[in-house]
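Methods — Computational structure assignment.
A single polypeptide chain was analysed. Its primary sequence is given first, followed by the predicted tertiary structure written as structure tokens.
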Amino acid sequence: MKGFNHVVSAAVLLLLIIGSGGCVEVQNSALLGQLLMAATTTALDESTVAAGLKEALRVGSERAVGTTSQTDGFLGNTLIRIAMPEQLDTVATTLRQVGMGAQVDQFEVAMNRAAESAAGEAKSVFWDSITQMTLSDAMGILHGNETAATDYFRDKTATTLAAKFKPIVQQKMKTVGLYGYYNQLMGVYQSLPFTSKPQFDLDRYVADKAQQGLFTTLAEEEKLLRRDPASRSTELLKKVFAAQD
């Protein structure tokens, strides 16, 4: 019975690490409800436990992705806001000095808007990794370090996300006019005396920052849940984690 309770704890822990906002929705899942109710009475077979865990993680990951993909999900979050890349610092400083500060700001906003739009594509990638998760993976996360779940998703999804993000980011950059802002800034900068265009891959920069921001958000949510009992917003959550404190 003790081993099964650990499995249930792992399921709830993983859900809340990925997005504590998904608690109410997951509790409404008939499959997960069956899993949690049975935890106090009788053991379930592994296939049922796994199915409940995956359903919980699916809903939770949707909410986590929602945090970064909403308007200002990147721009309004100082931890993940995409700033002017270092390679363009000289460009930005020079253009501000010649009265193009507003255009530089528009460029920064557009980078963040592109990342917010692309972040939504992570949902299906996370779900793919969840379907491959084993009960052993869950136990490892439960007893791992304060970012064990984030590390798991980074290890399992980073390569796939990188490949999927690039074309999505490119399309979103077109949609928000980022290429236009960039070309305008570079055109003005190169027209100034004693300047040359820096070597810089805009597509890769925004895609990488979008991916890093997503994992940073997951890590912060995970650390909060592990450290702060006040963040456990339901009676079920408090009960599950009482033994872990």
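Note: The radius of gyration is 22 Å.
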